[in-house]
Amino acid sequence: MSIDIETARKVAKLARIRVEEDDLPALAGEFSAILDFIEQLEEVDVEGIEPMVSVTPMRLKRREDVVTDGDRQGAVLANAPDAREGFFAVPKVVE
């Protein structure tokens, strides 16, 4: 598929990219090359091939999804510069 200069100008405008008039033929050529490559990819027979997320087969590690109260208040507040009554204490900003 071939992209003309006018189409390249329109794509650049839609992408909000300023392209000088002298550079439009090269941009149109690059767009055409990209579309030609996509056409080549469409010719590949992928019937019966499962999609993959990585080149190495792996499963994501999962944990059981349970709601807990966290029970880590003390550990979280241990590094706080100032904690009072189980909460972070911060300086007053608004009077």
Summarize the structure.
The chain is built from three helices and two strands. By secondary structure, it is mainly α. It has a domain of 38 residues.
Explain what you see.
- The mean pLDDT is 89.
- Strands 1-2 form a two-stranded antiparallel sheet.
- It contains three helices and two strands, in the order αααββ.
- Helix 1 (5-14) crosses helix 2.
- It starts with a helix and ends in a 7-residue tail after the last strand.
- The protein has a domain at 5-42.
- With 95 residues, it is mainly alpha-helical.
- Helix content is 36%, strand content 4%.
- It has helices at residues 5-14, 24-42, 73-77; strands spanning 83-84, 87-88.
- Strand 1 and strand 2 form a beta hairpin.
Q: Tell me the strand order in the biggest sheet.
A: 1-2
Order of helices and strands: HHHEE
Radius of gyration based on Cα positions: 28 Å
Main sheet overview: 2 strands, antiparallel
| Helix proportion | 25-40%
Estimated share of beta-strand residues: under 5%
> Termini separation (Å)?
67 Å
Please, how many helices?
3
Q: Which residue ranges are poorly predicted, with pLDDT under 50 across at least 5 consecutive positions?
A: none
Approximate shape: elongated
**Count of individual beta strands:** 2
Structure classification: mainly alpha
Mean of the pLDDT scores?
89
